[in-house]
Design brief:
CATH architecture of one domain: 3-Layer(aba) Sandwich
Largest sheet: 8 strands, mixed
Distance between the termini: 33 Å
Order of helices and strands: HHEHEHEEHEHHEHHHEE
Number of helices: 10
Radius of gyration: 19 Å
Helix content: 40-55%
Strand content: 15-25%
CATH class of one domain: Alpha Beta
Structural class: alpha/beta
CATH superfamily of one domain: Vaccinia Virus protein VP39
Length: 285
């Protein structure tokens, strides 16, 4: 296996995370849709554009991008996960667009992205998992038009994302958490340091790089009760990863602990915790 291969990520998103994200698609969209919608608005999609959606997941952002660029444009979603892409194709069929988006199962770090240059490369939390970010962003830039633009969102530090940190901290009472890996390892927080992220994009050849810090309350999957919010917290994200191989007795105890930790955030029939992310824009040249 090559040192900078994304093979581990491929296995993870096909065998572990992908099926879970398919099962949690509606609750995940309730959490991520406001951020994704803001990023799409910033992208300022124009009729007839060629668009690539990186780490497209269940395809809902790709479908919206296709809707915006119209039948004379084309949106392509690329992802490693076969289960998520199967869902994406079904969602696209249900959307009933005059021209449906195309979906490609491939590694954006090294895939041949075709000869038609993209006017926009977009991603909603799908670019933090590359083994070699400079190579990956370089591959994406080479597939863009000279005037092409890059727009994506990525998470800031877990310490600033209480919707992920609070459930993980609650687990300390029921199991021993593994030591944190390297801060820059592929994963949700790989781009949490803006200076490093700026350097990676510059090394890949991008220009006019802007990294905007965004914060706000994030709904726990649109949950209106503590049980649903707790179930969501233990289904996806760092807490779910920590419990991956835990026995049922530990899972039961973990549910009680996380539910208790989320209780202070129940207000007005919803559970929302602070989140922090970057909205990143750049130009191909």
């Amino acid at each position: 296996m090559a040192e900078n291969s994304n093979a581990d990520q491929s296995r993870y998103w096909n065998e572990q995370a992908g099926p879970k994200w398919v099962a949690a698609r509606d609750t995940l969209d309730a959490l991520l849709r406001p951020i994704g919608d803001a990023a799409i608005a910033r992208a300022n999609v124009i009729h007839a554009e060629q668009i690539l959606d990186v780490g497209c997941g269940n395809g809902r952002t790709t479908i919206e991008l296709q809707r915006l660029c119209g039948a004379d444009g084309a949106a392509t979603g690329i992802d490693l996960s076969a289960p998520l892409l199967e869902l994406a194709r079904a969602e696209a069929t249900r959307a009933g667009l005059a021209r449906p988006p195309r979906f490609l199962q491939a590694d954006a770090q090294e895939a041949d992205l075709g000869s038609t240059p993209f006017d926009l490369v977009f991603s909603r939390f799908g670019v933090m998992f590359f083994a070699d970010p400079v190579a990956a962003f370089g591959n994406l830039r080479r597939a863009m038009a000279a005037t092409g633009r890059l727009v994506f969102v990525c998470w800031q530090r877990m310490d600033d994302n209480l919707w992920m940190r609070v459930p993980v901290e609650a687990l300390r009472g029921v199991l021993e958490l593994p030591p944190p890996g390297p801060a820059t390892a592929p994963g949700p927080f790989a781009f949490a340091e803006p200076e490093r992220l700026h350097g990676l994009l510059a090394a890949a050849g991008f220009a006019s790089i802007a990294i905007e810090s965004c914060t706000g309350p994030l709904s726990m999957g649109g949950a209106t009760d503590l049980d649903a919010a707790t179930g969501f917290a233990l289904q996806v994200g760092p807490a779910a990863s920590a419990l991956r191989d835990a026995p049922e007795t530990v899972r039961v105890a973990a549910f009680a602990q996380v539910r208790k930790a989320l209780t202070p955030y129940l207000q007005g029939g919803s559970i929302a915790l602070p989140g922090a992310w970057f909205l990143v824009t750049a130009r191909a040249s």
